[in-house]
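Q: Hi! First time doing this. I have a protein sequence and I read that you can turn it into a structure. Is that right? Here it is:
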Amino acid sequence: MKKSIKFLSLLFITTVLIASCSKDNDPTDDDLFVGTYKGSVSYNNSDSDKSISSDNGSVTLVKVGDNYNFNFSDGIPSLTGIKMEKNQSVLISLDGTIKIDEGTLIIGYKKDNENWAANCDR
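A: Yes, that's right. Below is the predicted 3D structure, encoded as structure tokens:
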């Protein structure tokens, strides 16, 4: 009887631990995370006077290792090779700011006379 109670207790604790860990999954902890965020997106290239803006756009985020690729809709060029440290959900650099979490993506980034902006939700 004692062995049965110990076994059931251990099984219950293991189940609770596994279930609680999966709920705390942060996209910045994953080695490969793909997700689409929808909202307003914009792009401006001061060299070619190209400007694109959409309130109903999307950004697909692909993460492999520490590098992020942001694939924009509406003909906006992708923003690729953005390096972020593991467990870092906010990047603040001289080029701009990128914030990623489970439900929100905010981008304000400038690179070689090109400007990307996004304010999107899942």
